[in-house]
Amino acid sequence: MEVIIQPSEAAAATLTAKIVAHDLRANPRLVLGLATGRTMESVYRELVRRHKEEQLDFSRCATFNLDEYVGLPASDPHSYHHYMREHLFSRVNIDLLRTHLPDGAASDLDAECRHYEGLIQEAGGIDLQLLGIGRAGHIGFNEPLSALRSRTRVKALTPTTREQNATSFPSNSEVPRRAITMGVGTILDCRRCVLLATGEGKAEIIAKAVEGPITSMISATALQLHPRCTVIVDEAGAGGLKEKDYYRWIFANEPEWEGFR
Ligand code: GLP
After folding, report:
1. What is the pLDDT of residue 136?
2. Predicted TM-score (pTM) above 0.85
């Protein structure tokens, strides 16, 4: 794991977008794993800007989103399908046929989960997976006690997650109770992971995810097992980390980050 501390939320989002743009330019057929949530909005804004101003080309890449609420059709304004169209897909030259999200309105949810895993396999696996983190430490919707080898499946959302995500719904009771999510094992199979977390509200969970013991109670801790995972935080999000000086030293000296500093 590598931790990169950026001076501000904007700088953290810009660096995340820069990594995506770099990998996409190196491989136009990139298989990109996408995440939703407020944190990702500025990453997508920056990617759209790079598409418009710097001709960043999405036409040949494929995308797979981490998750979708059960019961919401793609047309629902609260669905992650809608979120992705709003923030990215309708604003860049992506081929919609190559964008994928689990179908939360499928009549056979288990079959849909197996199908989604199959699609990822067929695409050759995910090259770069973007991740946010929930306050309880979930990646995707891998709620506490998600098996560290889990695959795409239906998960019941915890009261904490439903409360946290309620701001995007008209009322708390309308937040779906379940979601389809890539499993922790599915995420660990991605060739590269980039987790972005900003703001004071994420400081405590980031410290646990990065410096705490690996536990299925906090699915983000499983990323410590990933051979190529970068955690990007702003100063506020880094607030709980003990080894900040060490992380800064690595970022300042690691040749891989030349051009990103
Ligand atoms: C939702 C998503 C997660 C995301 C989290 C963080 O729960 N399913 O994938 O990491 O939100 O959201 P935010 O960026 O709004 O804090």
Report:
1. 87
2. yes
Neighbours of 66 (CB within 10 A): 28
Per-residue pLDDT of 187-214, as tens digits, reads: 999 999 999 999 999 999 999 999 999 9
Instruction: Say how many C-beta atoms besides its own lie within 10 A of residue 71's C-beta.
Output: 14
Confirm if 95 and 166 have CB atoms less than 8 A apart: no
Nearest of 119, 113, 130, 222 to residue 178 by alpha carbon: 113
Residue 36 Cβ < 6 Å to ligand 1: yes
12 CB near ligand 1 (under 6 Å): no
225-257 per-position pLDDT tens digit? 999 999 999 999 999 999 999 999 999 999 999
Which of 36, 181, 182 gets mutated to test ligand 1 (max ligand atoms within 8 A of its CB)?
36
d(CA 105, CA 81): 11
Name the H helices within 91-176: 109-122, 159-165
32, 106 Cβ separation under 8 angstroms: no
| Radius of gyration for the alpha carbons in the chain, expressed in angstroms and rounded | 17
Among 163, 178, 51, 58, residue whose Cα is nearest residue 112: 178
**Using CA atoms, how far apart are residues 136 and 144, in angstroms rounded to an integer?**
8
Q: What is the sign, positive or negative, of the torsion defined by CA atoms of 117, 119, 124, 130?
A: negative
Please give the distance, rounded to the nearest whole angstrom, from the Cα atom of residue 46 to the centre of ligand 1: 18
Distances (CA, A) of 221 to 24, 189, 206, 211: 27, 15, 9, 8
